[in-house]
Fold these 2 entries.
Entry 1:
Amino acid sequence: MDKELNQACSSSSKRKAKAAFEEEKDDSEAFPCSDDEEEGECKVVERTKFSTILGYQVKSPTIKEIKSIKAVLNNKLSSKGFLEEFSKEWSSNKPLISETHEIIIDPFKVCVLNNLFEDDSILKAIRQEFYEIDWNRRKMDLYDFHQSCDLKHLEAKNITNFFNFLKETMMPWVSRTMNFNLHSVSATCSYYSDTDYLLIHDDLRGDRVVAFVLYFSDVQDWDQSWGGSLQLLSCTDLHQPHKTIREIYPVNNQLVLFPVSSTSYHQVDEVTQKNFSRYSINGWFHGDVNNKFVAPIYKEPTEGLFSTSYDVSKKIPVELSEWIWEDYLDQHHIKSIQNLIEENSEISLPNYFVPTKYLELCNEFENESLKWDMVGPPNRFRYEVLPETEFTKPIKELVDIFKSESMFKLLKCYTELDLDDEKAGIKYEVQRWKSGHYSLLSDFKWNTKELDVIIYFNCNNQIIGGQTQYVTEDEEIQQALITLTPENNSLNIVFRDTARITTYISKYTKEPFYALFCSYVEDQNKI
């Protein structure tokens, strides 16, 4: 048995021992995980000279020479009379809609310029050049999409023409009409294909003053059901992002501008269209920063995974054998588990609970009378927890198992951590995960070493996203050291000494799944 377990661990890309236990029952299943999913690396899509990216499809356009076209601002937007009138409108802080532009005030100031170029042939030429450039796959907890390098490093002639247009025409235009002192521009090309997204952020960094995005659309009318909108969010009294107030959908030849501030919270809604992608050039005008920074106030929760509050083990009369498959209580198997955790710092134990108990809990979580609370703010995490006041008898019994002295002692046997000490503690959450949910890196203090113990329920349908990943803390690259995919009745044990995220759950995930998530420490007095 030990040999089988060790072979399973070394051969699994996720270093899990689940296969060994399943092989002994002779009903094993493969749970493949690609290197891309596990490592979460930024991939480069190599240049393919005559290929078109449309969603996930690759097509070959007609081969023809791309001419150099000068980028010229629409006359309606560049006349002296318009500039003077727009400047007054912008400073009045009142909403306005006209044929040429819109000024949005709520939730923060945004300008939308329609038909930026009177002749949109420059846009068509740039779209052709999109097929010639290299795209970097940008994938972190906050986003998943494709992006080019900075425009100043690209050699494509029409993209270069547009970059010069930003510097020579639009930067003075923005400076004059919005009253900013600007000195430079940074920009990249971006495209979002099916399931790509960018979650909530404010763009506030360094000397960024005004953000912008220019849309390139393959279709005349972008259907709102395809997602991909620029969503503008309101703020709470604590200056935390709250909810979406306004959505701006991609329109060809449309430029969106907004001053960057500590309350300019926005995101790109997930694209759900397999045949068309959301293309844009986006970036910032840099200059003298005049905005007064208002720091958002984050109130640390008093309980749950993101608190510093732990409970001690409870003298609860439980019979582990009534809940846990007998092999996981057997000393021989416990020793094997211990060896594997010592080697890999994690393990996944399939079919952990006896079927009757597990199915009872699965049914209980579907109880429509349960009232779940949303966890936030959404620039940190977004998922639901069940408050203890809503615990039904089966759910309370589940939680009591993991709070019991018996479970603390069993986990000590699995891990050799001093969890039977009176100083040991546990914090936990009963969670519900649905499409649109996630948990980001944030500035949580991840330096506390904890033993994470997670078991999932009702993972019966296709789940896109929702993986728990243990990652390195880096602003540009997040390397997934361990990846846990939600699987029914599988107990995941991870000794955590780094950051933890839960990846964004796609809209294609139609049904919720549930989890009991516990974190144990040896000495809560040292936290």
Entry 2:
Amino acid sequence: MSSTTSTRINNINELPVDTLVKLFTYVNRTNNASYWLVNHALVCRLWTEKVLPQAWHELSISTNQPPDPLIYYYERGIIPGGQPLLYRRLVMRVGKVAEYLDILKSLTTVDLRNNPSTNSIVDRLADTLKSNTSITSLNLYNNRLMHKGGITIAKALERNTHLQHLDLGLNMLGTNGGQAIGEMLKKNASLTHLDLSSNQLGIRGAGPIVEALKVNKALKLLVLHSNQLRDECALPLADVLRQNVGFVQLGLNDNEIGAKSGVALARNLKTMKALSQLDFGKNELGDDGGLAMADTIKANKAITAVNLSWNKLGAKAAKAISDAIKVNTSVTTLDLSFNNIGSEGLIALSEALKTNKSIWYLDLSRVTSGSDGHIALAGALQVNNTLQHLDLNNCKMANDAGIAIAQALVANRTLSTLVLSNNNTFGKETLAAFGQTLATNRALINLAFATCALNAEAVEALFTSLAQNKSLIRLDVSGNPLGPDGGAAIARHLQTAPLLELVLQNCQLGGTGATAVLGALSTSLQSIDLSNNQITPNAGAALTLALSAGHLSKVNIASNKLDDDNTQQLSSVFQTTRSLIHIQMVSNQFSKASNNALLNVIKKNKSIFFYDLVEEI
């Protein structure tokens, strides 16, 4: 027999490049997680020597995990000498960003959101932006840039001619930052999308930005949410809009804008033929402003999305908006939540929905009405064949209204998401009616009854029929006092349910109820939320078996009473599971040693993408 001599390899980077290419290909082919991340160290030499800079288009930053640079397979690219692979996004620590911005000449998208440490590289980033010709999108949301960082970026963009999308939201830019942005907009002709939400601009910071819009005609999307603009800034903005009519979206949510400015803005928005979104939530329009906005909706057929939530609208405004959506068949999403339109307004809206063929998303959460209004809405659902998403959260719906909605859905074939949470007047009768509906309904895929004061008997009335349902994917019954009996009731019917996701947060299940639920999970279930349920260590064995079964990909067991007695079992399953990609288990009763041991095992598992444990020192 001939013998072969083998060379000992101590580091993966000692392998020949062609072997690394094959390994890279193999890892990509064999991953079974929905968004597998490959540690950069695995292919370090291959990446630096063979993956050309122009293969990368998108740069993103890791926050708390994963800690190392990663390759995220996303879009087709080619390693020279290798097969086509899926990769696009590079995820790395923020300290390396400036270095790679200079190297990766084809980079088009840079996402640095939620990284306060971006401040440490903002000067280098700004220097890069002055001459960079490839980056078209930059996200700096929530980086605490303050006015200094905002001024630095603004100065750089006075010279940049390629950046189109810029998100500077939640950076506390203040007056000085706003003024610098205003000066930049007078000189920059490439930016088309600018988000300045939540920056404490006020009139002194936003005023120069509004003034710049007289000159700048390139900007098509401007978001100024939550900046205390009030009427002092909204009125000048309305005047500018007579000269600058090219906006596709103007975001003015949460700015304390009153009826007078609302009427002035609406008058000019009426003629802006490119405007697709009327984004005006959480202001103080009242009925007068609401009537003006209704006229805009009626006249401007380009508008597809309307947000007039939290605006003190009454029945008068609701009637006008209802008339408007009979005429404007372009509107597809409508948000009237947190308005006191009453039964009269809801009845008018329901009549409009009987004939409207365009609206697929409707948010009526916290809209007050009597049963007659909700029953009228149920009547609309019987004939409407367009609506897909309906939010009736916290509408104080009575039991008879809930039953009417359930019965209406027997005939409805389009509504896929229904939110009925925080309606604590529902009883067993409503849940039984929905149970009967689910036995035949094939449209609903997402149903929420969170915090409806449901007991074990009521929730069993709903779960009993799930064996006959083949379409419901997600069910949320969190925040209901189900107790151990409720857990047992759910367990009796869970194995035959078609659910992919079940939310049981804060249901007082205890160890006994949780054990029953975990022992009855169907193999189709992929996600379960059992957080804040007073789950005791005696449920650990059932939890371990459920995690070992190989079908759960997302599990939340945070804020319970698991302790060191569960550490060994959980560590063992975290070492071997390949299905789990998301695990939340913070705020249990693990000691520092157990917490860190679990964290160490989770970090080593390459299929787990998200976890919330942090090292305790």
